[in-house]
Amino acid sequence: MMEKYDSNHNPETARRRLEIMTEAAHLLNSTIEYEELLKNVLKLVTRAVDAEAALVYRYNRAEEELRVRFYSGDQEPTVMSIKLDQGFVGWVAKNNQPVLTNDPMVDSRYNPEITDEQGVEFHSLICYPLMLRGEFFGVIEAINKTTGQFDQTDLETFDLLSDQIAVAIHNAFLYRNARSLALQRTTLYEVSKQLSHSLTLDEVLHNILTALKKVVDFTAGSVYLIDDKSGAVDTITSVGYDSAVKADLHLKIGEGIVGDVARTGEAQVVPDTSKDDRYITARHETRSEIVVPILSDGKMIGALNLEHDYLDAFSGEDQEILSAFASQAAISIERARMHKFMLDQKKMDEQLSIARAIQNTFLPNTVPSLRNFDLWGANIPSGEVGGDYYDFIQIVENQVGIAIADVSGKGIPASLIMASFRASLIAEIRNNYAIRTICRKVNNLLCESLEPENFVTAIYGVLDAKNAIFTFSNCGHNPGLILRADNSVEELGEGGIILGIRPDSKYEERPIYFNDGDILCLFTDGVTEAENAREEQYETDRLIETITRYRHLSAAEIGAKIIESVRAFSHSGIFMDDLTLIILKRPAASA
Fold first, then answer.
1. Percentage with pLDDT > 90 across the chain
2. 130 and 57 in one domain?
3. Element spanning 92, H or E
4. Which residue range forms the structural domain that includes residue 50?
5. Pairwise CA distance, residues 317 & 314, whole Å
6. Cα 473 from chain centroid?
7. Residue 557 belongs to domain with CATH number
8. CA-CA distance, 467 to 513, in Å (whole number)?
């Protein structure tokens, strides 16, 4: 049990005690605000015993540490914490007995690390336990008597004040916690309402940091999200950082305190960042940090990070509050991400619709009627808009231009390249140039307008139906096939390189002669590169086999059989790329 001290008091001592008790009654009952009350307690202690500085330690049972408020003269109190059994205060906490010494530095309980943090040279001190309903509550300490040495009278003064101080601090602490809890609930409710109307990610995260400021004191804060593809942990929104630093607030999982939380999924409270090697300096003023994970259905999606200019500024209670906000943040982040995905998907669908419309305007509406020839063409789109193109271009009577092409890429960019190719091709055809010249000029025009990674493969030829001659040039495209009546096969590979990559390239042209029963097939890679479940490709041999099997049919029927065969071969019957076909058949004489 703690001893009670008493001594014979002269009238002057009694008068002084009365003044102290009167001042104590005034200061301890003047406010219920926790921070203001602690300031008053510290001022009261220094005045009551003529001390240079004073400290109040409140015992945090959950974290088994003593939270310290330090006051010296007219400066603002600062916050620190120490573990039990450290120095004089730890001894008092363990033994529930006061300590009075006027030569503390020779005492075995003296701890220079604590005094260094406080920045005061110890000459004398009193440490006195605070008890509340028989249980240890904290410690009050006075440092360095300004008018001599501490004595029994000063110890008795502490004895008179300790119970009042303990009750006042406890009541203010309960009031602060009750108000803080109410504020937390109100703030979380308000945040929930605000975020239910916030659909953009930046707005969601900015609102979370703004609301957090109402319930947790911090100097700078940021919200980090994990990029699953790159493994980066990037800040999405932040406050309190220099604008020049904001662009560099990105880490890899495992880097820094934030990266470590992203790796482990465990919250981190760092009381002194200067003593933690993981801290990456984003602010030179930062002294303490707290980071909690943001989890969605158990999956780590980010981290909520707060920093403060004071040492040991964050407590376990702050961690609980921050974790509650992180849970709310996770719901809002996922909702905002889903909203963005839906908007992006809608935009993509609109782009694909536009691209498909553009592509459809380039495809022929009708097939030219040619004497002694059966002509057919089709484009079967995949789920995405590709860059396939085919066309029948009337030149003069009995002559028709036949083109098939495949543009690199997909979507609107591919459609625009296709438009450029088609316009260039038709313009040069109208100038009545030879086929090899048309290909050369179209190539030069594309080289001027396309980016280096874009290109076009194509076959362009002219069918002279009267003389049964097809003259063509292959510009890096899949070789066309001509199946002779005797079932021999020739490839149409002559021409030159793909279009749009090397200016002034030269192209050859070659005529082929049609006999009765011959069939020409032009196609894009969507036919021969179609894959089955085993990732095997349809390839040219299967195409030749299908044409041979159904060569007795019309051009349109042969084309339909090819499409049917490719669809049956493909995995789940889905075309992963556009499929484009042209069939040109010269029926047998008896047909």
1. 28
2. yes
3. helix 87-95
4. 11-178
5. 8
6. 50
7. 3.60.40.10
8. 8
456 and 556 both lie in a single domain: yes
Q: In this structure, is residue 428 part of a structural domain?
A: yes
Spatial contact of 17 and 32, defined as CB atoms under 8 Å apart? no
* Alpha-carbon span 235 to 212, nearest angstrom: 17
3-class DSSP assignment, residue 70: strand
One-character DSSP codes across 333-376: HHHHHHHHHHHHHHHHHHHHHHHHHHHHHHS-SS---BTTBEEE
In a shared domain, residues 90 and 15: yes
Helix axes 435-449, 411-430, angle to 10 degrees: 140
CA distances from 213 to 191, 296, 525 (A): 12, 23, 59
Of 144, 178, 212, the last residue of a domain is 178
Q: CA distances (Å), 381 to each of 24, 384, 524, 576, 578, in order? A: 87, 7, 12, 9, 5
Within 10 Å of residue 20's Cβ, how many Cβ atoms? 17
1: β partners:
none
DSSP string covering 249-316: -EEETTSHHHHHHHHH---EEES-GGG-TT---S-TT--EEEEEEEEETTEEEEEEEEEESSTT---H
Judged against a pLDDT cut of 50, whether residue 382 lies above it is answered with: yes
Q: Is residue 482 pLDDT above 90, yes or no?
A: yes
* 183 SS3 class: helix
Say how far apart CA 99 and CA 246 lie, in whole Å.
50
> Do 114 and 232 belong together in one domain?
no
- Residue 551: pLDDT above 90? yes
Whole-structure pTM over 0.85, yes or no? no
Instruction: Kindly report each contact of residues 508-511 with a partner whose C-beta sits within 8 Å and lies 24 or more positions away, as own/partner.
Output: 508/436, 508/473, 509/434, 509/435, 509/436, 509/471, 509/472, 509/473, 510/471, 510/472, 510/473, 511/469, 511/470, 511/471
Regarding whether 126 and 83 lie in a shared domain, the answer is yes
Alpha-carbon distance of 99 to 155, in angstroms, equals 9
The residues near 558 (Cβ < 8 Å, ≥ 6 apart) are 376, 519, 547, 550, 551, 583, 585
pLDDT in tens, 344-358: 777 777 766 776 776
Quick check: is 352 in a domain?
no
Mark whether 119 and 209 lie in a shared domain: no
Amino acid at 296: S
Do the strands 469-475 and 65-72 form a parallel or antiparallel pair, or are they unpaired?
A: unpaired
Q: How far apart are CA 227 and CA 326, in angstroms?
A: 18
Of 172 and 64, the structure prediction assigns the larger pLDDT to 172
* Nearest of 372, 341, 320, 16 to residue 181 by alpha carbon: 320
Do 573 and 454 belong to one domain?
yes
CB 51 within 8 A of CB 60: no
Give bridge partners of residue 400 from the DSSP assignment. Answer: 394, 463
**306 touches 314 (CB < 8 A):** yes
- Looking up tokens 């707060």, which residue turns up? 306
In a domain, 347, yes or no: no
- Is residue 574 included in any domain, yes or no? yes
Do residues 150 and 278 share a domain? no
Distance (Å, whole) CA 1 – CA 185: 42
Count of structural domains, the chain: 3
User: Among 280, 306, 339, where does a domain finish?
Assistant: 339
> In angstroms, how far is the first alpha carbon of the chain from the final one?
121
- The closest of 479, 490, 546 to 513, measured between CA atoms, is 490
Q: What is the DSSP string of 500-553?
A: TSSTT-----EEEE--TT-EEEEE-HHHHT-B-TT--B-HHHHHHHHHHHTTTS
